[in-house]
Amino acid sequence: MANIPSSGRDGFSSKFGVIAAAAGSAVGLGNIWRFPYVAGENGGGAFLLLYVIFIALIGIPVMLSEFTIGRRAQANPFGAFLKLKNGKPFIVVGIMGIIAAFFILAFYSTVAGWTLEYIYKAIANAFEGKTTDELGTMFSDFHTGTFMPVFWQVIFMVLTAVIIFAGVKGGIEKMTKLLMPMLFLIIIVLCVGSVLLGENTDPDTGAKIGNSLDGLKFLFYPDFSKINAQAILAALGQAFFSLSIGMGVLITYGSYIQKDNNLSSTAVQVSIADTMVAILAGVAIFPAVFYFGYSPESGPGLVFKVLPGIFQQLPGGYIVGILFFVLLAIAALTSSISVLEVVVSAMVEELKMKRVPATIISTAAITLFGVLCTLAFGPLKGVVIAGKNIFDLLEFSASNILLPLGGLLIVIYLGWFLGKRNLHDELSNSGTIKVRLFQIFLFIVRFIAPIAILAVFLNGLGVFGFESVGG
Ligand code: TRP
């Protein structure tokens, strides 16, 4: 039983399917591309520590809140707040969610497009024999171009749309069940390869270029002098982005979860899996960054410049390289479909559109937006708003502003407006399972999470006015 949720909506068919789909949304470019570069820009170990604290204290409660709201209402974020008790004003979460979906998919598809080009490069054996500098130039030449990055971005968006056509069970669930575990394995191979790189010396002069163990130290040794208000906000933004929370994706997914699923343990398991992939990605990347003598602050190109260097040094590196970029592209797809699903399900359920035209229209609109992000590294480099190019601007405002604000509203709704009895009923599957730590959860969503989000947020925007120096 439990194949069809009570409402007869499309839905996930098994417990593992739920976890795989939610983990498929969470695990993506955010873990493997974004985490290392944002951690690199914000000091490494201290950033990691903050990030993990935010995941536990804020991320898991927000994720559980989203699942709860979605499953209770059996609807997309708009429909959900319209249906649930005291929900009306909170449809602003839905509106912000749609805006965030546009922003996120725009820059996400840029980077996902880069991964498609790198699949091609890996197959063509383009990394072979290249020096560190040459690999850097190769990335620059490609991503500052016009036609190719846009071409791959469009392909990626078309792939996303095609999976969305297929619906939840056929499309989303099948894809993720098999591929997530494979991705996990290949990252572990890369971790081993990266850490074992050892000491790198210049063959001509004998001068030391770098040592892979310094990368581990960078990632795990917290140097608090690197932490300032922006770094704290960046850690919060990264936690939201990586867990796919704050814009209603997991409200929508929650509405597809069967009534007998234990939402609390699903939220904890998905968050742990997501965090592990991010940390492993860090272990795969930072030792290599230091070995090759790159700066950890190399920005969005970090993984594309660094990883091909590891593949060259690994036995079977040719195959590992292809597999890695294929799996990364698929991880990106299982995330991007979850973002697009929010837009499409809102159009279908609220505007009564058919699934196919809703998908085509939203995909086309988002892709146009996305092209601007892609060209922000090339022809549109000169377009700078508030000190950021278009790509950085969308990335910053989605991750560090829209998502935390959305999360803030979500926990406030759950803690103060849904009603304690409704909350307990949903978490306990109508009293059939015991909810552990209910009072603590309630205290977190009522007080800790909202205050923490607000404090980090205002502090990061400089509202408190005591910006620490350094970093
Ligand atoms: N979490 C995904 C990643 O780490 C990206 C993502 C998917 C996302 N859905 C989201 C981010 C919803 C924010 C909100 O790559």
Quick structural summary:
The chain has 18 helices and 4 strands.
Textual characterization of the structure:
72% of the residues lie in helices and 2% in strands. It has 18 helices and four strands. The chain starts with 14 loop residues before the first helix and ends in an 11-residue tail after the last helix. 53% of the residues are buried. The longest helix has 34 residues. Strand 3 and strand 4 form a beta hairpin. It has 471 residues and is mainly alpha-helical. Helix 7 packs across helix 14. Strands 1-2 form a two-stranded antiparallel ribbon. The protein binds tryptophan. The site of tryptophan (TRP) has 16 residues, from helix 1, helix 2, helix 10 and helix 14.
Keywords:
18 helices; two-stranded antiparallel ribbon; disordered C terminus; single chain; 471 residues; 72% helix; two-stranded antiparallel sheet; 2% strand; globular; binds tryptophan
